[in-house]
User: Fold these one by one.
Assistant:
Number 1:
Amino acid sequence: MANKNNEALKQPMWANNPVLVQILGICSALAVTAQLKPAIVMGLSVTIIVAMANVIISLLRNTIPNRIRIIIQLVVVAALVTIVSEILKAFAYDVSVQLSVYVGLIITNCILMGRLEAFAMQNGPWASFLDGIGNGLGYAAILIVVAFVRELFGSGTLFGFQVVPQCFYEAGYLNNGLMIMPPMALVLVGCVIWFHRAKNKDLQEN
Amino acid sequence: MATKKFRCKVCGYVHEGDKAPEKCPMCQAPQSEFEEIVEEGAAASKKGLNTNSNVYTILYAAVMVVIVAFLLVFVSQTLKDRQTANVINDTKQQILSALNLRDQADVAATYDKVITADALMQADGSLAKYNGEFNTSYKSEFDKGNLHVFEASINGQKKYVIPMNGLGLWGTIWGYIALNEDRTTVYGVYFSHSSETPGLGGEIAGTKFQDRFPGKSVVDGNNVALKVLKYGKADKSSKYEIDGVTGATITSTGVNAMINKVLSAYLPFLTK
């Protein structure tokens, strides 16, 4: 059992990464990765919420009527997100202003529904909790990689601090405006998937 | 869908078909080692609770909704006071930011010290004291025709702060513009937005863009002359033209429209 829990935590980080392998949560990965800071906060928020929702659904899994299970899952997620957003507004107002619409976007993140339906409905609370943490961190890792590249080449900054020296600009260097556009995020996610497939040969399709 | 499932008790191999295989293909165990896997619905009814019945489904949904509703009401009620305080504090900080007093440690104290009056502009351009509670939505105030002007005193010099609101590319944008006592020279500005693209339109909230405003002039004769143009189009020597944000033409146009719309309404005050 300990081994299974371990797998639940580690698998989604790399070998079964929700973004790279299951191609879930792509839309938010495009929306919040223009800068590092919102990407990290988004990654952490999703981790916390997917873990909590997994535990709740896992506890309820034997009582949920089969025909309305998706609705029940959605209600649990929406309630959690609303509560988290209210708490942020009360105790961390700055963060809530920065996140603005992204907190609400968590509800529609496919990773949540995917994990609730595929894992929490069949497994115990502890395993579900670890699965949630694993998937959240796996998602956060991709966001951070993509945001790092986009912010560095798109704005010349990291965490809002200028890292490309002024003399580069004077020598004719320009920030790549395309990096900030959502399509470039898709291309970058594609590059990460390429790298991931090259390392995980068993995932390659012929 | 008539197929049944059989699991080998020795190795766990699952066979699908009408009956169990003669020998397990994995571990060679005989047919007797196979047991039928009972479907989910049948298993639930064995426990005496039919989770698929209509009554159960409706009751479950109703109970769920009531619990969640109470939970949300409770959370919202307990946190409301803190949230309102935060919003008021944030609005005050935004007004102070227009006066170039950014990131204040104690916003309320600085606000009370710097802002000397919250006034309303009258039709003839004069100011009358506003007696209501401190407002946090200057869009609804503007729509109602309550034109707020904050009077501030910085190092003995009088400044005026005017709240603005408008539309960007994806959602609302708003800001505050602080003017010197001559009512036309910009002292400082502050812009914010609800959902502009981070890194592009979102940059209107950054100091890089806002620092282009101080020293410019708002009115020329009897018209609002301050303009935000597409990046690179502004004439640097002009005292009315300001470069927009690179790659955010629509948001920049929105800022321009917002300045024009709001300040036009304030013209009696600005030209008095």
Number 2:
Amino acid sequence: MARPVLMFDSLSCCEGCGLQVINCETDLLPILAAADIGRFREASDGDVPHYNVAFVEGSIVTSHDIEKIQEIRAKTDILVALGACATHGGVNMLKNFQDPDDVARYVYGERRAWVPHIPARPQKAEVKVDAEIPGCPLNPAEFLEAATCLLMGKPFRLPNYPVCVDCKLADNVCLWHKGVPCLGIVTRAGCKPYLCPSAGHKCIGCRGLVDKPNTQAAKDVMAEFGLTVQDVLREFRLFQGIYDEVSKEA
Amino acid sequence: MSQVAVDFEKGAAAPSPYVPKMARLLEAEQMTETERFFRVALEGEPLRYEPGQFVSCMVFGIGESPISICSSPTQGDAFELTVRSVGMVTNALKKFGKGDRLGIRGPFGNHFDYSAMKGQDVLFVAGGLGLAPTRSLIRYVLDNRQDYGKVTILFGAREPKWLLFRQEVEEWTKRKDIDTRVTVDRGDASWKGNVGVITRLFRQIEVDPTRTYAVIVGPPIMFKFTVLEALAEGIPEHRIICSLERHMKCGVGKCGHCQIRGIYVCREGPVFTYEQVKKLREGI
Amino acid sequence: MLPLVLNKSDLGAWIEALAAQRRVAAPVLKETSPADRTDLKFGWEYIADPAEVRLDYTVTVLGPKKFLWPARQTVMSYQIGADPRPTAVLDHEPHVLFGVHPCDVTAIQTLDAAFSKDIADPHYLARRADTAIVSIDCAAPCDETCFCLDMGSLYPEAGYDVMLTPEGNRFFVEVKTPLGEALVEKAKVRPATKQDMQARQKFAEEKRGNFHFQLPFEVKYLPEILDASYDSLVWEAIARRCFACGSCNTTCPTCYCWDVDDDVAVDLTKGCRVRRYDSCQLDPFAEVAGGENFRKDRSSRLRHRMFRKGKYILDQTGRSGCVGCGRCERACVADISIKETFIQIAGSR
């Protein structure tokens, strides 16, 4: 079998997910031994005409991003969206809830006319995405697992259970029982070992919703804690993945 | 409910039930777009199994999947499997060909009670992939034809292209000592046989309810309507036999995935009578 | 054997002597934030210093089960390629679980039975065979969620090697097994005096007075009560609150369902099968390859769990699937209580 060609690129984002990939350090060596890197924006120059797997981070916030992701899609067999911006829109989605002119003014300043800015959206809004590795930033262990699956030729599957499972396995006391509203109850697990509640911080839903969350029960629990759905949505709009789904029923 | 006896030392020294034996594919053939047929032989001692049992197939690096044995032990030392590619493991098996090796655990589960059926009529009703486990008993009965009374086989599939074991089923239809009828839900240009759901075939056959076992295997919806037909023919509930599909992961009654109420299908099943299934409530 | 007594001041030296031969896991005080007002401040950990051991602990999120039945356990390793050579992995080393409450002693007996039934599971049993259990008796209920007296787990008849009963500045030491005898050889114990025995009697009486039955029926009727509740709408009513997050299963000391992952090394040369906790409350648990889900409603999954805890495991092993430890209720964000559920279905018959 020919050596697969991989590529890594970024749309609008902080490029922290690309950095997380590089942070895998020596764990990347076996992948480099088995595959060629056609392009890696965060790490090197150069490009090739065709990729087998493209790992692309970032969301779409300008029409340039649309052109770029379409170009990548045309050149790759498999497109893997890396990180919350790529999979759910991520923090860039916050701008959709503000006046676009204000946003353009304070983000792009005097030269805002040069930037064809549009409402933010995840990659799957514009092109077919074959696999997603969510999270802000992505979990390097999950990236390595996905890469191994791709090299083995088996589908990569995200955990389909909420953060609570891993949180209890970490022997954590439930944050709700400490009076802290935590989104772990409806958020897809897989962030281990970077579990926010293990550090005393509530889950803010950066990995998006688990399949079939009980949003009705979530609202009931929040109400018991004196929160309205709108309160919680405002707080948890951060990563959009949860907002979209929950707000439909709000 | 007596307490299970516990012996740590003995248990700790027991062989792991989760390590497969290596097996080699003697034959591999794509039967339909999604179903692949394998003839498999264990390396070393042959597999000792009964009609209706299943094995776990391991593709190293990918995973494991429970598959019904579709052959009868009367067919020799090797055994046969029909694999539908629906998941990660079964899709990987699509690429397996003659000579390839895989891991096999088992056989697991109970089996069709062919002794009890001796001297009786047997009515087989199989829908789609349900023919695979059913075939293990059909082959057993055909190989011991003199031990059984009237044998009737009703087989249905969605469309002609989904009919399994086409050549073999055709040979069965030509045999004078069994009555084989095939139907498809939707025909195509080349199809000249019966069209319609499998329950319609019941109208064409004669059943003596006092001496018939009905062996019904197929998707839950088919099972329900076919059981209704069998009951309408007057076949008693304890002589309506089925094989239930669950995701047996461990095969040894531990992991919990195949549990229906208090029973583990991988141990106490997959073969049940309708009388048992009815009491389980969650059976179909 | 003559009843023995260990002075509390000699406990540390005993644990240290045990630590020379076995890994010691025990309840310890976990780091907690000042805002942490819950009682769940203890946890089961490997200890580095006998002074960490807190035999006065109450409840823990996870019980000592995690040392016998780890959340992830490799059961087999193999090579990728033409010759996989699958090999069983039995991973165990001498342990002592020091300070196991009677409810957890009872729960471990349920696990022992489940993994011994029909086809023995050597991966569990090898760890179990290598594990000594020193139990600590409870003088009073941990909190209002436990109902161990009802579930018959307050007075385990076996399942431990040594039982310590705390009274004043001493422990009564009951040696149950030959292994326990070997453990106690390392302790500075003395024979109990008449006065010691009177104090022990007093402890037993006070203990009995501190625990109260909480179920309005005798637990032997529980399987029957559950059976009669099968069609009740109560399951749907409770499941409306359920997130199906699996916290109840994850923390339960008798839950042992699992799923298996194939972990492949990044260089694709070798792999291993790792089993990990699974939860019957999670949506895909009863799904088959074709996509059909035999318990697709939260209510049917919740009912399945309650039946497993109150009936199925008992039917299968002769030992209760619920020991009344209260962990599932404490872990539940929606405050679903197994005890209240049992009470409710008994009333809704």
